[in-house]
Amino acid sequence: MKKALVIGGGFAGLSAAHLLSLQGGWDITIVENGPWLGGGCKTLWYGGHPYTFGPRHFLTQNVPVFDYLNKYCPLRRCNDHVFLTYVEKDAQFYNYPIHIDDVARMPEKTQIETELAEAKQINGAGAAKDFEEYWLASIGRTLYDKFVNTYSKKMWMLDDNKVMDDFSWSPKGVALKTGPRQAWDTAISAYPIAPNGYDGYFDIASTADNVTVLRTDIEKYDLPNKTVVIDGERRTYDAIVNTASPDVVMYNEFGELPYIGRDFIKFVLPIAHAFPKDVYFLYYASNEPFTRLVEYKQFTRVNYDSDSTIIGMEIPSKNGRYYPVPLKSEYERAQKYFDAMGENVFSIGRAGSYQYRVDVDDCIAQAMDAVAKLK
Fold first, then answer.
1. Are the beta carbons of 235 and 212 closer than 8 angstroms?
2. Structure pTM?
3. Is the N end or the C end of the chain the one with fewer CB atoms within 10 Å?
4. How many helices (H) and strands (E) does the chain have?
């Protein structure tokens, strides 16, 4: 039987382990040094309400991936959900993605309409060289300053949005929306039905045939030779699936990769619902230190009619390495790590692939691709 090592027990690592188990012929070891399996998707509880570290709904246009997860973790469709953005200058909440119908109630209505007409004539957003140019070409200066400029600077802790040269992840579907106000009306949006969220899937993956979980640290990495040291013992594998940041497992050989962290604050309010019906996220586009609030019971539906609700607040910080910074130069650095890892070593997941755009569905899709290559 061949041996596989999975570095990290988050969604990507557990998906890889489960899929290898289903393939058969593998003895699989997952090494996780954190307090639980599931990473940021692990369900925690506060005040009788379940929550995760930031919203972790399942969003995809990949039907086979949806069908796979739904088989082991039944999902409730939630395509009804709406995002709102608060613009302090206007003292107003507006739809996000920016909706054309909201322009009529903005103080700068005439100026915005002029800029939108000019933006349509530019026809160069697809060839924009940086984040700011993309948005200016798409929606004009006024809407950019109202919704995007300050938000993105605080999201990425930058002084200038022109620094970002990868921005395909930026719009929530489209830059300027028409028609329905639901954020993801063209994709599958879902959340687990079970009160403990994705935890049932994590249990299935971590207890699958020939899967062993070690709750410890890896003391030494030698990925090109598919060898590590665990608890003082040198172990060699036929394949390795890594979900940690590439610079960590390769000892910063090509330099450290930059990340943005998050401070996460949860609080319970003495009301049944804090947000309007179907509103799951509130974004804050001005000088507030936080970027987003989430009302979790909108997703989970757990204790939905109780007389309290739980809110999560996200504040960009240097605490943790959660969001890979979307710079092409850093993607090139990450690629050097991938090229040096050797045959039958795969680096997947948001951290492992060093791609901010990677979400739950991408973690599963990447695991499927890696496992297929090992068939």
1. no
2. 0.95
3. C
4. 12, 20
